[in-house]
Specification:
The protein has a single domain, classed as 3-Layer(aba) Sandwich (Rossmann fold), CATH 3.40.50.150. The chain is of the alpha/beta class. The protein has helices spanning 46-55, 83-93, 167-176, 192-199, 211-223, and strands at residues 6-9, 21-26, 61-71, 73-76, 79-82, 96-105, 117-125, 147-148, 155-157, 160-162, 182-185, 203-208. It has 5 helices and 12 strands. It binds S-adenosylmethionine.
Length: 224
Amino acid sequence: MLNDSQYILGDSISNMKTDTYDYFFSGTPCYEDLEIFGVDKNKPSTYKTKFLDWFVPRLKPRLGTVTIAFTGCRRANSQILPKFFYVNQTFFQNGYILKDTKYYIKKNGYDAYSHTLGHVYTFQKKDKEGIFNLRKHKNFNTYGKDLWGPFGKEKVIDGEVVAQPFEVPEMCILNYTNEGHVVYDPFGGLGTTGLAAKKHQRNYLVYEIREQIYTEGQKLFNAN
Ligand SMILES: C[S@@+](CC[C@H](N)C(=O)[O-])C[C@H]1O[C@@H](n2cnc3c(N)ncnc32)[C@H](O)[C@@H]1O
């Protein structure tokens, strides 16, 4: 069953044209990683106009399903950078509906929720049905809740926040795919998405561009 899985060190963007997969699950890169696209955190709308408007039309999940798990907002120079708004807007403009929204608690506190709340948005291409296993499996008590967690802590390696709670991709993968499907994460960090896919007999295609993070991720794949 698991015949098509890879955790790759390198830039996913240059392979996007040829990569094939059933379901997309990923975080979105931080503003700073996208300077190459012309994204400037002091001009938040460039996240949409310079990156998302290029990226989203290139996504081709065979099931038509895309989950973006990300920190909803961040602050810079006393303003909110409203990623959740740009993500929704761009998917709507590209023929998707918002199929489901979930949130997970990162920690209690107040800092305009940049570090307190994770957003998990699932979009569905209008012309594809996709899979929604909540109806038939026992995912109801996990995926079915609107507010998830708190889970384990994330980590910082080489200045990047990695190690998203395993449960987040796990619950989404169980809900939106079946065994044997290929799960794609082009911004994979330690490979949490791939590890969750592997655990549940799905294939995975996961990229990470930073060697230090990839090396740590590889250890996890070898151990699990
Ligand atoms: C938010 S982190 C992902 C965390 C991941 N979900 C985990 O659990 O570890 C985003 C990752 O994308 C990587 N990245 C950014 N641009 C990339 C690119 N063009 N190709 C591959 N990886 C990239 C960054 O190095 C970073 O580790």
